[in-house]
User: Fold this.
Amino acid sequence: MAWIFLLVAAFFEVLFAMGMKYAEGFTRPWPSLLVVVAAVAGIWFLTLSMRVLPVSIAYPIWTAIGTLGTVLLGFLLLGEALTPSKLVSVGLIIVGVAGLR
Assistant:
C-alpha cells in the first residue's frame, strides 16, 4: 500500500508543478486553488507512504517522478523543448533513483 500512496503522492506533485504554471503567480483563482490542494495532497500521501518506506527511498522517488512527469507534460502540453541535454539529465535522474533503490 505504501507504494500506491507514493504513486498517488507523485501524481499530486506533477499536478502541483503544472498548476503553478497555469496559476500565473497566483493571479488566477481556480488554478491557484488547484496548486494548494495538490501540494497538501501530495505531501499527505508522501507522509502516508513514509510510514513504511524509508525517507531515503520515498522522497527521492517522489521528487523524481514529479520531475519526470513535469518534463513530459511540459513537452506535451506547453510545447517545451526536449533538448539532448534535457533528455540526458532525465536519464541521469532515473539512474540516480534506481541506484538508491
